[in-house]
Amino acid sequence: MNLPNYAYFRGEIVPYCEAKVGVLTHGLNYGTAVFAGVRAYWNEEHEQLYLFRVVDHFQRLLHAAKIMCMDFDHSPESLTELTLKLLRKEGYRCDIYIRPLAYKADEIVGVKLHDLVDEITITAMPFDIYVANDTNAHVTFSSWRRLDDNMIPARGKVSGAYANSALIKTDAVKAGFDEALVLTQDGHVSEGSAMNIFMVRDGVLVTPTITENILEGITRRTVIDLARQELGVAIIERPIDRTEIYMSEELFMTGTAAQIVAITQVDHRQIGTGKMGPIATHLKELYQQVVRGNLPKYSRWTTPVYTSEKISAAD
Ligand code: PMP
């Protein structure tokens, strides 16, 4: 992965190599941090870089920060402004991943959330695909269980909770799968290691409700809107049993990094025809048009980075 040139760090944009924290930093030791993952897409024809649903991502980050007793003066809009400044300074002309991170910055020993200093850092780097096999992924059900809202809230994108995602992902990959689906404590399908899950049953698109210990995905919301408005497909949000997944006609995962990943096998059982299905295919194409700013109907979701004619890395 290419490292960024700059970082927003301790209130200013600095060279990336200067954005360093001490090894005792609270967030590093105890996972007391929350993060976001935003994408920006380069549109060659428009000579423009478009941030996708950036305000929604920062809104979710600030909600998660609140759960973790963090106190910031920032709004989603002010964090978007900082991100635009950083991206203009980087001057990228390719697809980008932005990583905002809010963390407990004190270098102390002591597990708690209160009376600590909260910092925000933002970095942005070139990024392409996250799941290589995104048209015919083979997934398994993880032997790990999803964290419950009363353990570490999944809706919060809390750094410490990603040890759960990492266990899920690594065990699946080492067993030869592309990804894994994970069950809640009561045995319902929750999501993937860093993606939400959708299945098609009897022509209806079904996805777990937000109380199934999922991250309330922004790609999930986008896909729900697009499926309803552009494909005219009925959508139900409800608990899903494991065996419904094996019986589904189509299956796909969604996420900012993963985008839309079609699953064609689960635990060596073929899903549908064994090829990416029509709904996933349609949504995948549509999603690429929307995120690259090619569909004016959805321009409310895209924020152009370069506002002047000339793209300049100068601030
Ligand atoms: N679930 C988890 C656990 C994730 O980490 C992610 C990635 N942010 C998602 C789902 C997808 O969320 P989004 O579409 O907002 O990126």
Question: How are the elements arranged and paired?
Answer:
Elements (H helix, E strand, L loop, with lengths): L5 E4 L2 E4 L10 H5 L2 E3 L2 E6 L4 E5 L1 H14 L8 H15 L5 E9 L13 E9 L10 E9 L16 H13 L4 E5 L5 E4 L3 E6 L2 E4 L10 H14 L3 E3 L4 H6 L2 E6 L3 E8 L2 E2 L7 H14 L10 E3 L11
Parallel strand pairs: 8-9, 8-15, 12-13
Antiparallel strand pairs: 1-2, 1-7, 3-6, 4-5, 4-6, 5-17, 6-7, 9-10, 11-12, 11-14, 14-15, 15-16
Helix pairs in contact: 2-3, 5-7
The structure holds 4'-deoxy-4'-aminopyridoxal-5'-phosphate.
Please provide a written account of the structure.
- The protein folds into 2 domains: about 5-130, D-amino Acid Aminotransferase, Chain A, domain 1 (2-Layer Sandwich), CATH 3.30.470.10; about 135-290, D-amino Acid Aminotransferase, subunit A, domain 2 (D-amino Acid Aminotransferase, Chain A, domain 2), CATH 3.20.10.10.
- The protein is about 25% helix and about 30% strand.
- The protein contains 7 helices and 17 strands.
- The chain has helices spanning about 25-30, 55-65, 75-90, 160-175, 220-230, 240-245, 280-290, and strands at about 5-10, 10-15, 35, 40-45, 50, 95-105, 120-125, 135-145, 180-185, 190, 195-200, 205, 235, 250-255, 260-265, 270, 300-305.
- The strands form 2 sheets. Strands 8, 9, 10, 11, 12, 13, 14, 15 and 16 form a 9-stranded mixed beta sheet that branches. Strands 1, 2, 3, 4, 5, 6, 7 and 17 form an 8-stranded antiparallel beta sheet that branches.
- Strand 14 (about 250-255) and strand 15 form a beta hairpin.
- Helix 2 (about 55-65) crosses helix 3 and helix 5 (about 220-230) packs across helix 7 (about 280-290).
- 4'-deoxy-4'-aminopyridoxal-5'-phosphate (PMP) binds near residues 195 and 196.
